[in-house]
Amino acid sequence: MAKIDIARRVYNHTWKLDPIVRSLLDTDFYKLLMLQMIRGMYPDVNVTFSLINRTTKVRLADEIDEGELRAQLDHARTLRFSKKEMIWLAGNTFYGRKQIFEPDFLDWLSNFRLPEYELSKRDGQYELEFHGPWSYTTLWEIPALSIINELRSRAALKSFGPFALDVLYARAKAKLWAKTERLKQLPGLLVSDFGTRRRHSFLWQRWCVEALKEGIGDAFTGTSNVLLAMDTDVEALGTNAHELPMVLAALANSDDELRASPYQVLKDWQRYYGGNLLIVLPDAFGTASFLRDAPDWVAGWTGFRPDSAPPIEAGEKVMNWWREKGVDPRKKLLIFSDGLDTETIEETWRHFNGKVRMSFGWGTNLTNDFDGCAPMPAPGLKAISLVCKVTRVNGRPAVKLSDNPAKATGDLSEIERYLRVFGDEARVEHEVVV
Amino acid sequence: MAKIDIARRVYNHTWKLDPIVRSLLDTDFYKLLMLQMIRGMYPDVNVTFSLINRTTKVRLADEIDEGELRAQLDHARTLRFSKKEMIWLAGNTFYGRKQIFEPDFLDWLSNFRLPEYELSKRDGQYELEFHGPWSYTTLWEIPALSIINELRSRAALKSFGPFALDVLYARAKAKLWAKTERLKQLPGLLVSDFGTRRRHSFLWQRWCVEALKEGIGDAFTGTSNVLLAMDTDVEALGTNAHELPMVLAALANSDDELRASPYQVLKDWQRYYGGNLLIVLPDAFGTASFLRDAPDWVAGWTGFRPDSAPPIEAGEKVMNWWREKGVDPRKKLLIFSDGLDTETIEETWRHFNGKVRMSFGWGTNLTNDFDGCAPMPAPGLKAISLVCKVTRVNGRPAVKLSDNPAKATGDLSEIERYLRVFGDEARVEHEVVV
Q: Is the N or the C terminus of chain B less surrounded, counting Cβ atoms within 10 Å?
């Protein structure tokens, strides 16, 4: 072929949009698992998801053009699950189980589209909210986040010339490869990609997933990104998220119901899933209170995912609790997923190796680490702590306490009520970077 | 990005092979339908497939390098159906029917690999044969043909500079687009791609399929290529081929069994398939004799695919036969698939419009028409009549008579026996171009 494909070039001239999200499968696997349960058990609950930028010094509304943001969100609303994708969801084996999604759920999913959004600007930030039935608004979380994060990368790269871009990606590739070389020194290590929501870009996440597949081999257990799992033939991974206890807590009609809600989540969950999907996420209202009040049967679940306390401290607490319940931690699984990078993975692995089964869900520092890669200052390439959280449930405010007060969300008065019910034991503030 | 991706360029320098066939789904759909029946009913029959170049003036062994041919055939033997492909075969709807492939067949298919081949040269031609159980050798037909055809295109293009290549594809695209503009003038026309085996190249076939999808819209009913059907989300099409009557005829132990064999094929077929898959291929031993001896129930099948007589003449004969059986041809389907191009499609459509349902399986002149496109003489780009046919069945010679003696294959003495049993009625020689 000639060096320049004229038809392609002219086509590119008339591009209206380079869509960031091109498939409804470009989301985290646990959203689909949760969605099946939400639709089955809570079809009438209304839930608002809201964008929250914890890195307030970054003024997103100044960095990202509102027209571009609306065009990307509108494009995501045109998507449907394609025939091939529906067939794959129905036919693939997830966590060793065939037909994890029921035919009735898949029928409904085949007509799914993302609901409307509300977007405005305030103090240099975007206020982006999704109102409506939980079973619809929940699927906005991941595409909303990945769209905003990629639009921010694109804005940061607009001034880069072709060589600067080439060098940027060359360095980022070298940097990630060096991480894989360190990680493959750890025998028996298990790592997966959890980096969809805060990725630099879709293509870069795909590069990272393929690099891990080649670079660490069997130590790479899969990706949370369903589309990449399908396309690169790796496992789709993930279990459940804070939205479940947050919504059930907000639905509670008394302090007693509120106190019981974290365990109600687990009861609901095990109606749908078993085996390695029985992973407790204990920190929505503080891990200490969760363990203190947990019924004995919780120790029968496969494992825990501590997500906001420092991993060694959090893991030790869970292991002590298992021992108190007469359970051998070596038969149990800890999944670490909070702000991991090579150092924390190494340190945590060394600490727990031989004492407990463990795996690592590696997120932002896998798919969006460009620190030191740009040949010129580019603050817009530094990942920020952006989340999309449940804020209202049937008109009531929703709350997350977390083990780290810097990760708490919700109305202050409501947070105080939750602290009264659950206690404030062992919650320690740590800087939230991503 | 910089204009030249150095990593990609260096990777290309070390390419050992640009595989032509990269997936076992890169075959014709009817091979999989037939395979399910072959494995179910004739698991112990040994069948040899042999390459036959009817365009003898083209000396394939001079045009195509033997090392390259072996490398491509060897690569095809490394392929397995991938997990995603198996899930799609199990979950997709074919001809309106779910689970057309039985779980037991799919289990077996998931371990399928192409058997060994025998390759030698003789008189400037390749002798390429596949020996073994029918349920294995049958899947070699399409990849063997598409490999040889694409190697021939590649050889022809080796001397082309970048501009000559650019102009070649520009003209070929313009030429195909002009065909779509003519075809979309015919209201209610139905056309599908049957051009896998003799395509110019895989990428060009994909371009043709996507061009038809955009160019003639609903008039494009799908492709025989299973991989392209999956990837471009169109219907996978095709029913059955001459190998079924040829093998059953060769297995016949008497002239009476031989005479009955074309109808035995249909009885076998309807144990597995129904509806629009009940398409009679009548010409293996001459359409006239087939119709003369056909039981009445054959008129209950959905349609016929005349494949070697001129389409109008062949279609009229089948329609007369339907009328004799008291069947209204307007409720029946004719599928034309022999050496079609725009003119024959238009002429045939005009002749039969309103008299019978019809559709067109467009092959070589869709996916390998570069006549007048090269800016320099390139005889190697002209498609040839290359087939891969059953030649021996459990040690006995196999025969095809066809409506066109130029398409007959088999030992001369055996052809004479078949002519004695079936008769030579209405068989007329026509030049075979592709």
A: N
Top residue of A81, A84, A163, A235 to mutate, by most chain B CBs within 10 Å, is A84
Edge-to-edge, what's the strand order for the sheet holding B357-362?
Answer: B220-223, B191-193, B357-362, B333-336, B303-304, B279-280
A431 shares contact with chain B (CB less than 8 Å): no
Within 13 Å and on the Cβ side, how many CA atoms surround B156?
A: 24
Reported as half-sphere exposure (CB side, CA atoms, 13 A), residue B30 has a value of 24
Asked if the C-beta of B90 comes within 8 angstroms of chain A's C-beta atoms, the answer is yes
**Minimal Cα distance from B5: which residue of A?**
A166
Rg (CA), chain B: 21
Buried-exposed string B19-43: b where 16+ CB fall within 10 A, e elsewhere: bbbebbbbbbbbbbbbbbbbbeebe
Q: Are B154 and B200 in contact (CB under 8 A)?
A: no
Does the beta carbon of A163 lie under 8 angstroms from any beta carbon of chain B? Answer: yes
Contact between residue A37 and residue A102 where contact means Cβ atoms under 8 Å apart: no
Nearest to A423 by CA among A264, A280, A291, A308: A291
Q: What is the DSSP letter of B431?
A: -
- Is A87–B91 a contact, with Cβ atoms under 8 angstroms apart? yes
Q: Which helix (H) or strand (E) holds B265?
A: helix B255-272
How many Å apart are CA B31 and CA B236, to the nearest integer?
12
ipTM: 0.73
Chain A residues lying within 8 Å of B169, measured CB to CB? 1
Per-residue pLDDT of chain A (434 residues; tens, 9 = 90+): 445 677 777 777 667 789 999 999 999 999 999 999 999 999 999 999 999 999 999 999 999 999 999 999 999 999 999 999 999 999 999 999 999 999 999 999 999 999 999 999 999 999 999 999 999 999 999 999 999 999 999 999 988 888 889 889 989 999 999 999 999 999 999 999 999 999 999 999 999 999 999 999 999 999 999 999 999 999 999 999 999 999 999 999 999 999 999 999 999 999 999 999 999 999 999 999 999 999 999 999 999 999 998 999 999 999 999 999 999 999 999 999 999 999 999 999 999 999 999 999 999 999 999 999 999 999 999 999 999 999 999 999 999 999 999 899 999 999 999 999 999 887 888 888 77
The structure's pTM equals 0.84
Between chains, do A233 and B90 touch, taking CB under 8 Å as contact? no
> According to the 3-state scheme, what is the secondary structure of chain A?
CCCCCHHHHHHHHCCCCCCCCCCCCCCEHHHHHHHHHHHHHCCCCEEEEEEEECCCCCCHHHHCCHHHHHHHHHHHHHCCCCHHHHHHHHHCEECCEECCCCHHHHHHHCCCCCCCCEEEEECCEEEEEECCEHHHHHHHHHHHHHHHHHHHHHHHHCCCCHHHHHHHHHHHHHHHHHHHHHHCCCCCCCEEECCCCCCCCHHHHHHHHHHHHHHHHHHEEEECEHHHHHHHCCCECCCCCCHHHHHHHHHCCCHHHHHHHHHHHHHHHHHHCCHHHCEECCCCCCHHHHHHHCCHHHHHCCEECCCCCCHHHHHHHHHHHHHHCCCCHHHCEEEECCCCCHHHHHHHHHHHCCCCEEEEEECHHHHCCCCCCCCCCCHHHCCCCEEEEEEEECCEECCECCCCHHHCECCHHHHHHHHHHHCCCCCCCCCCCC
